Amino acid sequence: MWPEVILARGKRHLDPPMTRTSKLTPRARRATWLGLSLFALPLAPSAAQHRFVVQGEGRLAVVDEDGQVAWQVECALVEGVALAPNGNLFVTLSGGHLAEVAHDSRRFVWRADVDGERERLPALAPLARASDDGLARRREALAEFGDDLCAWDLTEIGPDFELLERARAIHWRTLTLDTHKDIRDSLAAEPAGSAGSDSAAVRDDPRRWGPNQVDFPKMRAGGLDCAFYIVYVGQGPLDAEGYARAKEQALAKFDAIERQARRFADDIVLARTPDDVLRGVAEGKLVSCIGIENGYAMGEDLALIAEFHRRGARYMSITHNGHSQLGDSNTPAEPLHGGLTEIGRRAIEELNRVGIMVDVSHSGKTTMMQALKHSKAPVLASHSGVRALCDHPRNLDDEQLRALAAKRGVLQCVAFDSYVVDGKAREDAIAKAREELGLPPRERFSRVDPATEDQAKLTELRKRVAEIEAQHPRATVADLVDHIDHAVKVMGIDFVAISSDFDGGGGILGWRDASETFNVTLELVRRGYDEAAIQKLWSGNTLRLWREVAELAAD
Ligand SMILES: [Zn+2]
Questions:
Q1: Which CATH class is domain 2-159?
Q2: What is the pLDDT of residues 133-175, one digit of tens each?
Q3: Cα of 17 from ligand 1 centre, angstroms
Q4: How far is the CA of 504 from the centre of ligand 1 (A)?
Q5: Residue ranges of the alpha helices (H) in 223-332?
Q6: Which CATH code fits 174-404+476-489?
Q7: Is the separation of the CB atoms in 228 and 291 below 8 Å?
């Protein structure tokens, strides 16, 4: 069954690639040319939800088995279709566009400019076997759309439906919590001028399926219930002026998260306790929590910790990249303080006292081990990987994992490409290709600006990047679950969880945004994790830790 093949190693086994799969059959192509074509395929594979995508006369429609149109949209001709393991459907359209249809068939998501994206699609599969039987079964129901159609019958060639259905059932019963999702200050901002004139407000309107990796529609589509929204401040100088600026930046992010919960109270709640999380989800709402990334935000003002707690913060990291006033970061490698500082120790005491979890992600190893010792309460590593699988200084080695678990702390394994697989060879090869082509160095291919760079060179670069990525693949959901597997082996099932780092550099093949959250559960089920274990990984362990920290504070 193909999901196992695909998810075993993601793109490495993606064969044949999208561009060669699921073209229209000659019969359908001929009919398309005549302008009469329809083709249909079942969309959601469970019998109860059987729906079909139909193309004809310049529109794409989803119809029920009884022929009712669920929705339709004007669009270019469909060239091919493929099904992702989460049940979503990808449709390539003439003109180089790609459409994605959510598995419940209620949303139609355009993903334009497929050229860059096509190579990255995590889990496309051939789907193209016309079935005479299916054709006959559907011809009647779809008759109103025309007299020629071609059907792809998923029940014959599709994914492992038993696994898919089992995983889906578990996923929708499980409270899913992502411990790290970055935001901009303009999250949920009121448009400044007339409607549509304020592009940041439109971009960061969480009600729209927009460019961010997390918004309400994507959370709902992917079954992501809850996320820690991050009050992030970049590391600056360790002086009064720097601290003042950091505090200001932090407060702007608190404002944004509060504003989202206030403006869209019907959609999302801001949780201050684990019970708030449970209640919000029980009410059918999405849930936001607050984590602070970088204790730099508090400067040397210990009283600010209680203020941050009052604003809803429930974890705070000791550092980000660069040494803070509280302790040494994992980067630069050369320490500044030799671990925790005096104010760092006092900050941990205050965090324990008010009930904010101490986050050791981004900390250097010495800082982390000292924080474990100094904290009365268990701590978390809100978004890190395991070093045994990817030797990156952001990741935790087995000694750190064991120490974290011994303290009843939790590692939230992160879906950040370069912490999941070693991407150095890939990055080096891409940098070299850029140099050879006379293009300026860029960290990532996706940030190439087509307006300012030579088109022919870019086309060549794109080709080379595809070759390089075939040799040095990007991280997949399977790779992320390798980290989870390792952490569970070393720490035990009660001390491991999951995070994305979405909108802060996170995202991997198969979990590119919140709408693909189900793929993580699917892979866990495929690996044999039972429902109780999956619930622990997705939220149980993090909520247990949060509860313990809150109870210790109350004592
Ligand atoms: Zn981070």
A1: mainly beta
A2: 433 433 443 343 332 222 333 333 344 657 777 887 898 889 9
A3: 33
A4: 7
A5: 240-263, 274-282, 303-310
A6: 3.20.20.140
A7: yes
